[in-house]
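Entry for 2-phosphoglycolic acid complex. Fields follow.
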Amino acid sequence: MKKTYLIANWKMQLLNKEAEDLSFEILNKVKKIIPSTRNKNLEIILCPSFTSINSVNKIIQSFFKNKSLSAGAVKGSQGAKAEQVKLGAQNVFYQKKGSYTGEISATQLKELGVKYIILGHSERRKYLNEKDEDVNKKIIITLKNNLIPIVCVGETLEQRQNNKTDLVLSKQISKAVENVKLKNNQKIIIAYEPIWVIGTGQAVNPKQAEQSTQIIYKTLQKYFTEKIIKNNISIIYGGSVDSENINNFLKMDLIQGVLVGNASLSSEKFIKIIKKIKNNKRN
Ligand code: PGA
């Protein structure tokens, strides 16, 4: 059975102490609400800013080992399914190493315990001029380091209104996966994120999301075998996900998780989402 992914994208919202506090709160609550025998399929991925990756990794690790790092906050965590909580980054540079001032490599992230990397988020495409070609190179370096890329694609409102959604999605996917070969143990997550609903508090109709994920699926079929798509690629949804709408998305056949921005910045809201997933029979 494929995993259900719950990915917290903290963007550039938190100072280090705030990221530490939020991680502690989430991990402590996760420990309480996920009994050790259930929810093996749920994978929670915390994606802090680069500046907090080291601290958040230490917190996740301490939780694993049942070692308290601060004020007993993780005491008694034994038996919790902490292995379900993983670390992600929000970007990577596509070169291996070298004179690239200000950039961060996949090996540097891996060294800090990162397992997943968000790539091609619409905010990076918009503000940092990131192109499909860059995303493609970043996917390749990410996979080479045995990390899992979370590749974001999605249309603007204007593109949707001009009936360009299918075209935009198939082009973004085609370019992103060009020359990407997936070995048996390698995975890619594709996040469908309609740009016009990100951060608005108003998610798309799940049926619309399902239609877009079908386009993504069809495009993937041009590049990968059915077996690889089934076993190694997961499609998720992102854009104003909260505890009220989460299960409407997870009901959709092709949607295997969610990428959450705003609602992941509050441990209460994030835990409410986890509880909803937990009560969903699929998990
Ligand atoms: P949102 O952000 O949940 O705040 O809409 C999602 C994202 O940008 O990944």
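NOTE: The chain is about 40% helix and 15% strand.
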